[in-house]
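Fold sample X.
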Amino acid sequence: MPKILNLEKLSPSQRWVLVVGSCLLAAVACFLASQRGTGLLSASLLFFLPLSLSAVLLGLNATAALSVLVISIALLNLLSASAPVWVLTVFILGVAVNYADWYRWMKAGDSREFQLQKARDELELAMNDARIAHEKVQSAHQANQIKIQRYTALNELARSLAMSLKTQEVVVLLIETISKTFMAQGGVYVFLLFDSSIGKSLHSVRYSVDTEMEVRLNRERLNPAEIFNAWVVSQAKPLYVNDTANDFRFQNYPAENKIRSLVSAPLMAGNEMLGLIRMESCFPSSFRQDDARLLSNFCDLGTVALEHAALYRQTIEMAITDGLTGLYVQRYYKERVRDEVFRALEHKLPLCLLMIDVDKFKDYNDKYGHLVGDKVLKVVAQILKETVRTVDLVARYGGEEFSVLLLKTPWFGAKNVAERIRQKVQAQQIMTSQQATHVTVSIGVSELNPSFKDVESFIDSADQALYQAKSEGRNCVRFAKTKAAL
């Protein structure tokens, strides 16, 4: 076997040397046999060696030509030696039989080579098909893994949102989960929340790029009138843009903004749009249609969570605020007063409390009716909220009585606030079905000092000042007298 492998490594010139050399050896043998007068038939058989080498090394065409040459030389030798007819006949028949067998063997070899090559080609095709099938299976597996990861994230988000009762928590959970789930190259993730109750757009934004870009792009991305946001708002359905440069809907979009691909979906609660979520990239084809569908699922979960947060907020507000005036109720107000008293004493901060009562409210209520009386309470409550700071606490203490806690305010500041409240209420016209009416208020003011043994004593001192104001003619402001510790 190693020798055959060595023959396969011979160059064409080396193969010809071997074949021609063997032919010369056979020719020399025949020549010597003719010189000695011996028979040439046995010497002619030596030509089977070069013919065999030719078949192995040179192929069919060279061997056929060499065979014709050998047969011709053999015939000339036989004719020159005056061989009998039967010898010539046997020689020719032997040549014919050998040629037939050799030809059949070569054809069988060609057929086997053809079948082998065919089998190789079929095997290669099968391997290519198997490779393609494997790549498809691998691609499908990767796609399924991505889907599993995304819907796992969707499931985890649903669980987290179910435990989130604050709007800010819902917004943060949504934007963080979306940015981690999609991870688009150069991605920007925007959340717009429309809050009709306060008349402005709330938002939370997280970028996958540097913070400077967040500041630079903040206004543009968060403008509901921006071209992509406006499309979602007007159509109330998801938007998918594979390449803004080739989308006819946004032909007027300025190219310098460098948004090439985008997906956006609204948060729809029935026919009301609570907001929208938007993903964008500076590269084209960063998102697919599947991304748009998945983002819609995220928005559906976000809508439910936002509605639950709003309902929870309304429930809390109903528990701590008065239904008529919108001010804090007495129970919650006292809890806040207790907290602020402890803080003021600890940090030695000034703190004042006002007790306010509408003068002769029962007579006014009997004269004009309960509806007008409710209107008076609403007007007084509105004046209180407009006069004090947003950090101050305002409560409906009971009936026609109100209370205000002025944080970090000394007695002279509280006096000015109380006087402004009294004057504004006195000047306010309250329209009835018959005429314009007026009401007045009496106000008692108390400043916190260490002499009070508890919060109730602090509130009671302001209440005593209120009684003094009412007993001294009403429509006035009176201060509590500082007492020694009780």
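Fold sample Y, listed below.
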Amino acid sequence: MHSTNTGGSSANTTEFSNRLFVYEVVGLRQNAETDKGSYPIRSSGSVFISVPYSRMNQEMRRITRLGGKILSIQPATGATGGVSGKAATIAEVKVPTLETKAPQMTATKEKEDIPVNLYKPNKPFIGKCIDNYELVGEGGIGTVRHITFDLSGGDLRYIEGQSIGIIPPGVDAKGKPQKLRLYSIASTRHGDNLDDKTVSLCVRQLEYKHPETGKTVYGVCSTYLCNMEVGADVKITGPVGKEMLLPDDENATIIMMATGTGIAPFRAYLWRMFKEQHQDYKFKGLAWLIFGIPKTANILYKEELEKLQADFGDHFRLTYAISREQQNSEGGRMYIQHRVAEHAEELWSLIQKPNTHTYICGLKGMEDGIDAALSAQAAKQEIKWSDYQRQMKKQHRWHVETY
């Protein structure tokens, strides 16, 4: 992620809040709606519409709805409404709307600050397992382990939101060495011990029925990791990934939606925000985690998450979607998309803030439901969600890592 604008919001508002701007517009249709307003309709060429800064977003949406296209925005002079000064493009005026390419308003990491591929498959880092414990409570489904590796003696650095590769021992069905598998890192850059010498993973043992034989099949790498003994060596590659990084803005709003082990990068975020209180990062914004799991016993890091909510309630919000224990409004199972629909109005309001970042991690199946809930809410303001989401992606404010 890269930003060329690190503090535009307050400065932009101060500069323009009391001024008028003139839109140069083409393509407005003559119809009943335009007859109600003061639009100087022409059959061809440009029309010019004076707009106060406070109504720029609303006016852009209305012009687009009427078939118009904004060619430029110019500052208007005094009472005459005339045009003066250099014509400004929409992007230069920095009004974050659906129709404009809004500037990214939060600072993010410079590319050179992001460690990538420090260790490759042909020369992996040899780490050592120093902790491996169960996260699923009694009565829960499956097994999920929190596994920590010692990184002493090497130069394996990483930041929150990245992944590392694990190369399991042995050979595959074709007799070739096993290929690496990627896992999201569940610890901050300083590690669980805050000594910059460890990295942690949140690993679910993959288990499924073979479609032809009906036999239970266990994932090669996940089983290797879940059964790993303390003291065992492990081949590690990476780190990799630039999609799920946190913004540097300590006042940002961070919305996180996770299923199962998709909690891994969000644990790293939350530990950095609230548990570490590190001298180089003092989070003062809002973090909201919506977490989907099948049973209460499957709430990974439950005690720690709920303690964060109790201690930092003004800055951290925790919402569960427990599918086999809770019901949605229609009487069916409660999945994460249903929670998003319940809170759609509030989420949509937050998402429109220029320093809000939204992260989705976990099962790919949740994406359609989340999009549907937010699409319905955006439509109430006559905004097409898919277009708005596309702009958010361009601004590096919409981050997805699903499987």
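Sample Y note: Residues 366-379 form the longest helix (14 residues).
Also: The two ends are 22 Å apart (CA to CA).
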